[in-house]
Write a structure and sequence with these properties.
Elements (H helix, E strand, L loop, with lengths): L3 E12 L2 E13 L4 E5 L6 H8 L7 E6 L2 E2 L9 H7 E4 L11 H5 L1 H5 L6 H14 L15 H14 L4 E5 L7 H16 L3 E5 L3 H4 L4 E6 L2 E5 L1
Parallel strand pairs: 3-8, 3-9, 6-7, 7-8
Antiparallel strand pairs: 1-2, 1-4, 4-5, 9-10
Length: about 230
């Protein structure tokens, strides 16, 4: 179980004379072993919040702690292998390797993670992960030939294949229809019930209402956390 806390987290972006406050002094506690939805209009800071939590971008000021340890301003945040052991990511552009098969993408966190896993066990985990997102039998298919919805599900399968304690999902159902959106959400919810912490940025208010915690954002600030 992992407890994530942000205190006074600030991140700004500048373009000429314009300054955008993507995170404006955010203080927030993410519930451990629960699924949390981060909601709000486009540009409110949802993606920046997830990227900051996952140590993909540095804060300008403030802190991020995991189980009471400040990780945002430490060597931990700059160590890709240690970071991937704690966090798995589902990003909006999927970040799939176009030259690889579906299995070749899903297996990545098992190959480069801290734990040493044999090939037979890796194949089993890949198949199980693809089955959970409705892509059984897709192992040898080329990623470049998949639809947008299929690519999104491959990205989710890759995230859940790893042993990371925290899953950060940025619009994980954005390219899916309502049936597949609910199926993917149930996978994420089952992950949280198994003891992992799931944080999901979403525009889907119906799915957000099913989460354990809802964080409402606007203009880089937290309006509410319930």
């Amino acid at each position: 179980m992992v407890q994530i806390s942000l205190r006074g987290a600030t991140k700004t972006y500048s373009a000429g004379d314009s300054v955008s406050h993507a995170l404006d002094g955010v203080s927030l506690d993410i519930q451990s072993s629960k699924i949390t939805a981060v909601v709000g209009p486009s540009g409110c800071g949802k993606s920046t919040l997830l990227n900051a939590i996952g140590l993909l971008i540095p804060l300008d000021s403030g802190s991020i702690s995991v189980d009471g340890v400040d990780v945002g301003n430490s060597k931990f945040g700059r160590d890709a292998r240690r970071r991937s052991a704690l966090f798995s990511y589902v990003v909006q552009d999927f970040a799939l390797l176009e030259s690889e098969t579906v299995a070749g993408n899903v297996v990545l966190p098992l190959v480069y993670g801290e734990k040493r896993i044999g090939r037979r066990r890796r194949r089993s985990i890949v198949s199980e992960s693809l089955s959970k997102v409705g892509l059984s039998g897709f192992e040898t298919k080329s990623v470049s030939r998949l639809s947008g919805g299929e690519r999104q599900r491959v990205a989710i399968a890759r995230a859940i294949a790893g042993y990371a304690d925290v899953v950060l999902a940025d619009e994980p159902t954005g390219a899916l229809d309502s049936v597949n959106s609910m199926a993917v959400f149930e996978v994420l919810r089952s992950i949280s019930k198994s003891g992992k912490t799931v944080v999901m940025a979403t525009h889907n208010r119906e799915l957000a209402a099913l989460c354990d915690q809802i964080v409402e954002m606007k203009d880089g600030s937290i309006l509410s956390s319930i």
